[in-house]
Amino acid sequence: MKAFFTIFVGFICLVLLILGNLHWQKKIEITGDGSSYHATAVNDDETEAFAQTDPLMEHAANWSEGEKQQFQTALAENRPYHILIVGSEQLGEGETSWTALFQNDLLATYGEQAMTIETTTYSETTAEFVSAGKQAEWAAKQADLIIWEPFVLTDNAVVPIEESHEYITTVMNEVKAANPNITFILQPPNPLYQPKLYRTQVEELKSFAEENNILYLDHWTSWPDPMSEQVRNYLNEDNQPNEEGHRVWAEFFIQRFIVQ
Protein backbone atom coordinates (compact mmCIF):
# COMPACT_ATOMS: atom_id res chain seq x y z
CA MET A 1 0.00 0.00 0.00
CA LYS A 2 2.80 2.40 0.88
CA ALA A 3 4.50 1.74 -2.49
CA PHE A 4 1.22 2.36 -4.33
CA PHE A 5 0.70 5.66 -2.53
CA THR A 6 4.23 6.80 -3.45
CA ILE A 7 3.66 5.94 -7.14
CA PHE A 8 0.29 7.76 -7.12
CA VAL A 9 1.79 10.95 -5.64
CA GLY A 10 4.58 10.83 -8.22
CA PHE A 11 2.06 10.53 -11.06
CA ILE A 12 0.09 13.58 -9.81
CA CYS A 13 3.27 15.67 -9.60
CA LEU A 14 4.21 14.73 -13.17
CA VAL A 15 0.78 15.76 -14.49
CA LEU A 16 0.93 19.12 -12.70
CA LEU A 17 4.42 19.76 -14.09
CA ILE A 18 3.28 19.12 -17.68
CA LEU A 19 0.16 21.31 -17.34
CA GLY A 20 2.17 24.14 -15.78
CA ASN A 21 4.68 24.06 -18.62
CA LEU A 22 1.91 24.20 -21.28
CA HIS A 23 0.26 27.15 -19.54
CA TRP A 24 3.56 29.05 -19.35
CA GLN A 25 4.20 28.66 -23.09
CA LYS A 26 0.81 30.20 -23.90
CA LYS A 27 1.49 33.43 -22.03
CA ILE A 28 2.19 36.72 -23.78
CA GLU A 29 5.78 37.88 -23.70
CA ILE A 30 6.33 41.60 -23.25
CA THR A 31 9.77 42.60 -24.46
CA GLY A 32 11.97 45.64 -23.91
CA ASP A 33 10.19 48.69 -22.55
CA GLY A 34 6.74 47.35 -23.46
CA SER A 35 6.55 49.16 -26.79
CA SER A 36 6.69 45.97 -28.85
CA TYR A 37 4.87 42.75 -28.19
CA HIS A 38 5.11 39.11 -29.18
CA ALA A 39 1.83 37.20 -29.01
CA THR A 40 1.48 33.42 -29.16
CA ALA A 41 -1.60 31.32 -28.46
CA VAL A 42 -3.70 33.53 -26.18
CA ASN A 43 -7.11 32.83 -24.68
CA ASP A 44 -9.71 35.53 -23.96
CA ASP A 45 -8.88 35.83 -20.25
CA GLU A 46 -5.18 36.32 -20.95
CA THR A 47 -5.92 38.91 -23.68
CA GLU A 48 -8.10 40.90 -21.29
CA ALA A 49 -5.49 40.80 -18.53
CA PHE A 50 -2.81 41.91 -20.98
CA ALA A 51 -4.87 44.83 -22.24
CA GLN A 52 -5.72 46.05 -18.76
CA THR A 53 -2.03 46.36 -17.91
CA ASP A 54 -0.89 47.88 -21.21
CA PRO A 55 0.03 51.57 -20.73
CA LEU A 56 -1.31 52.52 -24.16
CA MET A 57 -4.84 51.69 -23.03
CA GLU A 58 -4.68 54.52 -20.52
CA HIS A 59 -4.59 57.01 -23.41
CA ALA A 60 -7.70 55.36 -24.91
CA ALA A 61 -9.90 55.92 -21.85
CA ASN A 62 -12.44 57.99 -23.85
CA TRP A 63 -12.92 55.36 -26.56
CA SER A 64 -16.06 53.28 -26.86
CA GLU A 65 -15.97 49.68 -25.62
CA GLY A 66 -15.94 48.37 -29.18
CA GLU A 67 -12.92 50.49 -30.09
CA LYS A 68 -11.10 49.46 -26.92
CA GLN A 69 -11.71 45.78 -27.54
CA GLN A 70 -10.39 46.01 -31.11
CA PHE A 71 -7.37 47.96 -29.95
CA GLN A 72 -6.70 45.36 -27.24
CA THR A 73 -6.97 42.61 -29.83
CA ALA A 74 -4.55 44.38 -32.17
CA LEU A 75 -1.99 44.80 -29.40
CA ALA A 76 -2.29 41.16 -28.37
CA GLU A 77 -1.87 40.06 -32.00
CA ASN A 78 1.22 42.25 -32.40
CA ARG A 79 -0.28 44.27 -35.26
CA PRO A 80 -1.13 47.96 -35.63
CA TYR A 81 -4.66 49.16 -35.01
CA HIS A 82 -5.70 50.61 -38.37
CA ILE A 83 -7.81 53.78 -38.60
CA LEU A 84 -9.34 54.85 -41.92
CA ILE A 85 -10.54 58.47 -42.17
CA VAL A 86 -12.82 59.05 -45.16
CA GLY A 87 -15.11 61.80 -46.38
CA SER A 88 -15.56 64.67 -48.76
CA GLU A 89 -12.91 67.16 -49.82
CA GLN A 90 -13.91 69.28 -46.81
CA LEU A 91 -11.50 67.11 -44.82
CA GLY A 92 -8.66 69.02 -46.47
CA GLU A 93 -5.19 67.89 -47.41
CA GLY A 94 -1.58 68.67 -46.62
CA GLU A 95 0.33 69.19 -43.39
CA THR A 96 -2.07 71.81 -42.02
CA SER A 97 -5.24 69.74 -42.51
CA TRP A 98 -6.97 68.48 -39.37
CA THR A 99 -6.40 64.87 -40.43
CA ALA A 100 -2.63 65.44 -40.64
CA LEU A 101 -2.55 67.21 -37.27
CA PHE A 102 -4.65 64.45 -35.72
CA GLN A 103 -2.45 61.74 -37.22
CA ASN A 104 0.74 63.36 -35.95
CA ASP A 105 -0.53 63.46 -32.38
CA LEU A 106 -1.91 59.93 -32.47
CA LEU A 107 1.33 58.41 -33.75
CA ALA A 108 3.39 60.47 -31.31
CA THR A 109 1.27 59.07 -28.46
CA TYR A 110 0.64 55.47 -29.51
CA GLY A 111 3.56 54.80 -31.84
CA GLU A 112 3.65 53.44 -35.39
CA GLN A 113 3.93 49.87 -34.12
CA ALA A 114 0.58 50.17 -32.35
CA MET A 115 -1.37 52.31 -34.85
CA THR A 116 -1.62 53.22 -38.53
CA ILE A 117 -3.83 55.93 -40.05
CA GLU A 118 -4.96 56.48 -43.62
CA THR A 119 -7.06 59.33 -45.06
CA THR A 120 -8.96 59.31 -48.37
CA THR A 121 -11.29 61.99 -49.72
CA TYR A 122 -13.96 61.70 -52.41
CA SER A 123 -15.83 64.13 -54.64
CA GLU A 124 -18.87 61.87 -55.16
CA THR A 125 -22.29 62.04 -53.56
CA THR A 126 -23.39 59.08 -51.47
CA ALA A 127 -25.49 57.87 -54.43
CA GLU A 128 -22.54 58.03 -56.84
CA PHE A 129 -20.24 56.40 -54.29
CA VAL A 130 -22.53 53.40 -53.75
CA SER A 131 -23.35 53.12 -57.46
CA ALA A 132 -19.62 52.82 -58.20
CA GLY A 133 -19.25 50.16 -55.50
CA LYS A 134 -16.42 52.05 -53.82
CA GLN A 135 -17.38 50.69 -50.42
CA ALA A 136 -15.53 47.54 -51.51
CA GLU A 137 -12.31 49.57 -51.26
CA TRP A 138 -13.00 50.19 -47.57
CA ALA A 139 -13.79 46.56 -46.92
CA ALA A 140 -10.50 45.55 -48.51
CA LYS A 141 -8.57 47.85 -46.14
CA GLN A 142 -9.48 45.62 -43.17
CA ALA A 143 -9.50 48.67 -40.91
CA ASP A 144 -10.38 48.43 -37.23
CA LEU A 145 -12.05 51.85 -37.22
CA ILE A 146 -13.57 54.00 -39.98
CA ILE A 147 -14.19 57.68 -39.21
CA TRP A 148 -16.59 58.79 -41.93
CA GLU A 149 -17.87 62.20 -42.95
CA PRO A 150 -20.63 60.88 -45.25
CA PHE A 151 -20.45 63.50 -48.01
CA VAL A 152 -23.05 65.75 -46.37
CA LEU A 153 -22.17 68.91 -48.27
CA THR A 154 -21.75 67.02 -51.53
CA ASP A 155 -25.25 65.60 -51.09
CA ASN A 156 -26.66 69.05 -50.26
CA ALA A 157 -29.68 69.75 -52.49
CA VAL A 158 -28.70 66.76 -54.68
CA VAL A 159 -29.51 63.63 -52.67
CA PRO A 160 -32.57 63.69 -50.36
CA ILE A 161 -31.72 63.24 -46.70
CA GLU A 162 -33.62 59.95 -46.35
CA GLU A 163 -31.87 58.48 -49.39
CA SER A 164 -28.50 59.63 -48.10
CA HIS A 165 -29.12 57.73 -44.88
CA GLU A 166 -30.09 54.62 -46.86
CA TYR A 167 -26.79 54.80 -48.73
CA ILE A 168 -24.90 55.20 -45.46
CA THR A 169 -26.61 52.06 -44.15
CA THR A 170 -25.75 50.16 -47.34
CA VAL A 171 -22.08 51.10 -47.09
CA MET A 172 -21.82 50.18 -43.43
CA ASN A 173 -23.61 46.85 -43.88
CA GLU A 174 -21.41 45.80 -46.79
CA VAL A 175 -18.18 46.77 -45.05
CA LYS A 176 -19.25 45.01 -41.85
CA ALA A 177 -20.13 41.90 -43.83
CA ALA A 178 -16.46 41.67 -44.79
CA ASN A 179 -15.17 42.74 -41.38
CA PRO A 180 -17.76 42.17 -38.61
CA ASN A 181 -15.56 43.62 -35.84
CA ILE A 182 -15.06 47.01 -37.48
CA THR A 183 -16.30 50.17 -35.74
CA PHE A 184 -17.83 53.13 -37.63
CA ILE A 185 -17.84 56.71 -36.38
CA LEU A 186 -19.88 59.31 -38.23
CA GLN A 187 -19.14 63.02 -38.14
CA PRO A 188 -20.32 66.13 -39.99
CA PRO A 189 -18.07 68.24 -42.20
CA ASN A 190 -17.18 71.74 -41.03
CA PRO A 191 -19.83 74.36 -40.14
CA LEU A 192 -20.75 77.08 -42.63
CA TYR A 193 -21.90 80.63 -42.01
CA GLN A 194 -25.66 80.75 -41.39
CA PRO A 195 -26.47 77.35 -42.90
CA LYS A 196 -30.06 76.48 -43.81
CA LEU A 197 -30.72 73.14 -45.54
CA TYR A 198 -27.17 72.10 -44.66
CA ARG A 199 -27.82 72.59 -40.96
CA THR A 200 -30.92 70.43 -41.24
CA GLN A 201 -28.86 67.73 -42.96
CA VAL A 202 -26.32 67.76 -40.14
CA GLU A 203 -29.02 67.61 -37.46
CA GLU A 204 -30.72 64.73 -39.28
CA LEU A 205 -27.39 62.89 -39.58
CA LYS A 206 -26.90 63.15 -35.82
CA SER A 207 -30.44 61.88 -35.19
CA PHE A 208 -29.91 59.02 -37.64
CA ALA A 209 -26.73 57.98 -35.84
CA GLU A 210 -28.40 58.11 -32.42
CA GLU A 211 -31.44 56.12 -33.58
CA ASN A 212 -29.22 53.41 -35.06
CA ASN A 213 -26.66 53.27 -32.22
CA ILE A 214 -23.85 54.54 -34.44
CA LEU A 215 -21.07 56.50 -32.80
CA TYR A 216 -21.30 60.18 -33.74
CA LEU A 217 -18.66 62.78 -32.93
CA ASP A 218 -20.10 66.29 -33.06
CA HIS A 219 -17.08 68.55 -33.48
CA TRP A 220 -19.39 71.51 -34.18
CA THR A 221 -19.48 71.97 -30.40
CA SER A 222 -15.88 73.23 -30.61
CA TRP A 223 -16.55 75.79 -33.36
CA PRO A 224 -18.11 79.25 -32.99
CA ASP A 225 -21.87 79.44 -33.45
CA PRO A 226 -22.51 78.95 -37.20
CA MET A 227 -25.08 81.75 -37.08
CA SER A 228 -22.46 84.25 -35.88
CA GLU A 229 -19.99 86.27 -37.90
CA GLN A 230 -17.16 84.75 -35.86
CA VAL A 231 -17.35 81.42 -37.68
CA ARG A 232 -16.16 83.17 -40.85
CA ASN A 233 -12.74 83.56 -39.23
CA TYR A 234 -12.35 79.79 -39.42
CA LEU A 235 -13.28 79.39 -43.09
CA ASN A 236 -11.72 80.35 -46.40
CA GLU A 237 -13.56 81.89 -49.35
CA ASP A 238 -14.54 78.41 -50.59
CA ASN A 239 -16.24 77.62 -47.27
CA GLN A 240 -13.56 75.10 -46.39
CA PRO A 241 -11.71 75.30 -43.06
CA ASN A 242 -8.68 77.56 -43.02
CA GLU A 243 -5.69 76.73 -40.81
CA GLU A 244 -7.51 77.91 -37.69
CA GLY A 245 -10.58 75.87 -38.62
CA HIS A 246 -8.50 72.74 -39.17
CA ARG A 247 -6.79 73.31 -35.83
CA VAL A 248 -10.15 73.45 -34.01
CA TRP A 249 -11.34 70.33 -35.81
CA ALA A 250 -8.13 68.46 -35.02
CA GLU A 251 -8.11 69.47 -31.35
CA PHE A 252 -11.60 68.07 -30.88
CA PHE A 253 -10.50 64.66 -32.16
CA ILE A 254 -7.18 64.73 -30.35
CA GLN A 255 -8.89 65.32 -27.00
CA ARG A 256 -11.33 62.49 -27.69
CA PHE A 257 -8.73 59.95 -28.79
CA ILE A 258 -5.87 60.83 -26.44
CA VAL A 259 -6.08 61.05 -22.66
CA GLN A 260 -2.80 62.43 -21.33
Can you give keywords for this protein?
disordered N terminus; 5-stranded parallel sheet; 260 residues; 11 helices; two-stranded antiparallel sheet; alpha/beta; Rossmann fold; 50% helix
Word description of this protein:
With 260 residues, this protein is of the alpha/beta class. It has a domain at 80-257: Rossmann fold, CATH 3.40.50. Helix content is 50%, strand content 12%. The protein has eleven helices and seven strands. The protein has a five-stranded parallel beta sheet, sandwiched between helices. It has a two-stranded antiparallel ribbon with strand order 1-2. It is globular. It starts with a helix and ends with a helix.
Given helix and strand content, the structural type is: alpha/beta
Sheet of most strands: 5 strands, parallel
What is the CATH top level name of the domain at 80-257?
A: Alpha Beta
Globally, the shape reads globular
Total strands: the figure is 7
CATH architecture of the domain at 80-257: 3-Layer(aba) Sandwich
Radius of gyration: 24 Å
The number of helical runs is 11
